[in-house]
Amino acid sequence: MDLISILPDSVANQIAAGEVVDRPAGAVKEMLENSLDAGATQIDLVVKDAGRTLIQVIDNGSGMSDSDARLCFERHATSKIHRADDLFAIQTMGFRGEALASIAAIAQVEMRTRQPENDLGTEVRIEGSTIVDQHPTACKQGTSISVKNLFFNVPARRNFLKKDSVELGHIEEVFRRITLIHHDVGFSLNSNGKMLYNLPAGSLMARIAGLYGDVYKERLYAVDEETDIVKIHGFVSKPEYSRKTRGEQYIFVNGRFIKHPALSTAVERAYTDLLPERCYPSYFIGLSVDPAKIDINIHPTKTEVKFVDEHALFAILRSAVKRALGQFSLATELSFDTPNEFNIGPAPKDYRPQQPRTHYNPDYNPFHARATQSQIKFDSLYGTPERETPTMFEEQTGKDVTVSSAPIFSTGTCMQVQGRYIVTSLSSGLAVIDQCRAHERILFDRMCKNTSESSDRQTLMFPIQCQFSPADAELIAELLPELKRYGFEISPMGQCTFVVSATPSGMEDSQLQSLLDQLLCDYKGSTMQKYSRRDDSLCASLARQLSVKEGVQLSQSEMQQLVADLFACPMAEMSPSGKRIITIVKPEELLK
């Protein structure tokens, strides 16, 4: 009995859709790339309900004829590949001929298109790969495609979509990837009737500022390099504007966004010894390479590529970024027009240099030094927590932990090791406490308990202006009530600018813009998906950023306060991010 049969086109198209259009953002990517290949100079994207209800792309490109308007929805129908050799010299965005066929298999599609030489255009309506109607129509030059009710005939796939805020975040990321490198084309993004981005054609720097705010004009260094192998142009962030996540990292090859670990490593290697630990640079870099020396036909989404001269590309890119960092940082920090007062003349003939003398205090004891102003006052951020029921540590050790205005941790004297760990004695052994994670747990618990606007805050003598991208500005406006509850006082000032007049007590003013940027990044990323409540995700991000950092020297009283506050937490053993805070070294282990 024969078992093998040819799949119907409708089923084959749905299988292809699973590779190309796994979520609304996948359809957005394919539709925007088709508009670019059509030579459009203005492309408008409209979405409703994060693409579930509607995805519409309108362009002023070349348009299509009557027959092409029908044929473009067939599998492997493309105007960009005609023979096998063309695969090794690809200059266009799309070339597989599966995008529109895949989209039409899982949605209701309406398309209007007109070529400039024609007076009338064509309208085509398709549902689930079946052409329902096609007729002449009056429309503008170019193409308008509306994708409605995505996955209407694949309910299982639709059920796997995340909430609208997550899916819209994916759409915005696709929009940024495409608009950054194609900055010579105008773009707009409208979501649920609200304009998120309106980007005129311009330079790469103007496009970055349009997406992320004008503040980025002062945060970036230009990278330019041209060799026989590759031409490089783009921007990298100044080291002081590094981030704790790899969010704003974009590498493009021949006008296409790619993911390439080796090239990403090359950029980060250029920042060696310039960034704090676990901090990452932002970069927007475009590479131009001979198409014959690159293979982009190795993944359906075309984001993974192979290079013939990968090692050479690595070395050239690393050197170009390193030179940009050195050149521009020195140019801004050093002046070669030395003032006269720094000119040191020759010494007199009878001058005899004196042997230098060292002055020191023989009674100085570093362990009795007072805390400096840069040290963190733990009880200044959100107050001291109220005493609750005995904790698991009290029950295990039989010791009493006292929290008062002058707290004393009764189990013993604390000692700080390597600027990160606090060691104190328990009846069961030695407790080694990670001070960063401990403070993060304390702050997280306090902020989660605080349901009123009674958080300790400090009023700024000079209010600070913070700028955001249009999408981030909308998100900040949405989060204002929660931020106020945690000690911020933020007011809108213009479309993408906010004025901050108060911050949580103990927070440094210089941290403000980067803290809010990181908070938004965490909220839109993994943090938002990890926590079920929006308040919890915000608390986790703020607690991590406001917690005492590694290397901060703590006084004896500060260490005792930190340990006492930690042991008063219900989940003192784990940080909000799920990392261990305390390790107990038992007496028998010490004997070894």
How many distinct helices? 17
In terms of DSSP E residues, the strand content is 15-25%
**What name is given to the CATH topology of the largest domain?**
Ribosomal Protein S8, Chain: A, domain 1
CATH H-level superfamily of the largest domain: MutL, C-terminal domain, regulatory subdomain
Average pLDDT figure: 79
Quick one: biggest sheet? 8 strands, mixed
Oligomer: single chain
CATH architecture of the largest domain: 2-Layer Sandwich
Apparent shape: globular
Low-confidence stretches: 330-345, 368-378, 380-411
Instruction: Round the Cα radius of gyration to an integer and report it.
Output: 30 Å
Helical residue percent band = 25-40%
Main β-sheet, spatial strand arrangement: 5-4-3-6-2-1-7-8
Strand count: 22
**Number of separate domains:** 3
Terminus-to-terminus distance: 72 Å
Supply the CATH class of the largest domain.
Alpha Beta
| Alpha-beta classification | alpha+beta
Structural account:
The longest helix has 24 residues, at 310-333. Helices cover 32% and strands 22% of the residues. Strand 17 (421-426) and strand 18 (429-434) form a beta hairpin. It is α+β, with helices and mostly antiparallel strands. The strands form five sheets. Strands 5-4-3-6-2-1-7-8 form an eight-stranded mixed beta sheet. A five-stranded mixed beta sheet has the order 9-10-13-11-12, sandwiched between helices. Mean pLDDT is 79; it is low at 330-345, 368-378 and 380-411. The protein folds into three domains: 9-197, Histidine kinase-like ATPase, C-terminal domain (Heat Shock Protein 90), CATH 3.30.565; 206-331, Ribosomal Protein S5, domain 2; 375-592, MutL, C-terminal domain, regulatory subdomain (Ribosomal Protein S8, Chain: A, domain 1, 2-Layer Sandwich).
